[in-house]
Amino acid sequence: MCSNNIVDNNYSNTEIKIKDAAKSLFLKKGYSATTTRDIARESDINLAMLNYYFRSKRRLFEIIMFETLYEFLSKMVEVYNDEKTSLEQKLKLCSEKYIDMIIAEPLLPTFVLNELKNNPTSFLKMPTTKMIMKSNFVAQYQEGIKKGIYRKVDPIHFVTNVLSVIVFPFMCSPIIMKIENLSKKDFNIMMTERKKLIPAWIIQMIKK
Amino acid sequence: MCSNNIVDNNYSNTEIKIKDAAKSLFLKKGYSATTTRDIARESDINLAMLNYYFRSKRRLFEIIMFETLYEFLSKMVEVYNDEKTSLEQKLKLCSEKYIDMIIAEPLLPTFVLNELKNNPTSFLKMPTTKMIMKSNFVAQYQEGIKKGIYRKVDPIHFVTNVLSVIVFPFMCSPIIMKIENLSKKDFNIMMTERKKLIPAWIIQMIKK
DNA sequence: TTTTTTATTAATCATTTGTTTAGTTCATAT
DNA sequence: ATATGAACTAAACAAATGATTAATAAAAAA
């Protein structure tokens, strides 16, 4: 929820109510499986209000998609481009940050990757997308290679691996929970464990 | 395509044509975004044939889902339970096998994980699901821990990491291709590179 | 051949779904 | 107080969609 203040102030207007409900439903069920009547019911507004404020279901989706992606990518770039922190510190920071982020919104990775598959262009529009590979994070990695402390491997593999071990487990959470007989709480504890483990693993992976 | 023989033999009957088209479309667009008319058009059969052979769209989907999952899991267990190979050999084998498998059907991981999120029960029914954690692969890992050559970490993290670095990059392929300006061919070359890199990375990760 | 079963087709049904319309309420400005 | 525009509602429309039906063709059994 976006507007869970004690005072039911005017920010909780129809437009926001629609967006909140729509985001929740799109994340849970995807674009096609979510109907405009679902959204109207969930946000407790009249069906026509959706088109009144957002013109169409597609446009509402694109607005939510853009905002969600933007927020997500912004948080990523923040850590990667901090000039003050070392590579090891960045690993620790981004591991912690992403895992907290996804615990707070567990459906986000699957949603983003899934809807991206159908419409890869929406990602291109985001300014921050290509920045990752030109970030301080990657520069530090390449420096380590030059110094001879890291193995010489294309940085794309490095970045991919970091994101893989952080994000993928969340996408498998239904499987992991079933196999290991974990509750959602247990699963989150497991992911919290990984905050410390992942930086160590990555360092071991890249070191000579 | 399943039935692309030179001779248009009788195996290529209506039922198979429907299943082939439906699988292709479900993988590409998901359940909700695929209409029965899409399937009828793609398989070049009369719309009513879908219900004649499969009773409903949902049932057709469930049959395809089951078969796809079964095939996928069978291939996994095969490698994990080979008593003759060492852990390092298994890492190499499964890395190669999965990457080849997903290159052949790149939409499979996203499809499986996505539809699983909506219906986790279908996975429970699969007999091979829980077998992974009791496989020879995991046993060898735990043995390595006992011997003191591997760090003491819960096997679920080990298995998760292996699958993460293999599967996740495929799910990000649209992003990776965009960021790195890769064609689909280039991307597959990158993934083929990883066949050799992944076993080495994993060994480094788990070693003391 | 005749009969019976199976496979296929075109047309149709009943809902669902995204969107629009015409009318109403409400707040604000004149 | 009145007028004006924004916010909202109930109803309806048109297209899409999953499913069925009744009739026909093809194949198999008698």
Description:
Two copies of one chain form a homodimer. The first copy, chain A, has 208 residues and is mostly helical. Chain A folds into two domains: 8-55, Arc Repressor Mutant, subunit A, CATH 1.10.10.60; 64-206, Tetracycline Repressor, domain 2, CATH 1.10.357. The first copy, chain A, has helices spanning 14-33, 36-43, 47-54, 57-80, 87-104, 108-118, 121-124, 136-147, 155-171, 173-180, 184-206. The radius of gyration of chain A is 20 Å and the shape is globular. Chain A starts with 13 loop residues before the first helix and ends with a helix. Chains A and B meet through helix 1, helix 6, helix 9, helix 10 and helix 11 of A and helix 1, helix 6, helix 9, helix 10 and helix 11 of B. Chain A binds a DNA duplex (30 and 30 nucleotides) through helix 3.
The CATH topology of the largest domain in chain A corresponds to: Tetracycline Repressor, domain 2
The number of distinct helices of chain A, counting runs of at least 4 residues, comes to 11
What is the gyration radius of chain A calculated from CA atoms?
Answer: 20 Å
Question: Main sheet of chain A?
Answer: none
Low-confidence stretches of chain A: 1-12
Hey, which two chains have the biggest interface? A-B, 47 and 48 residues
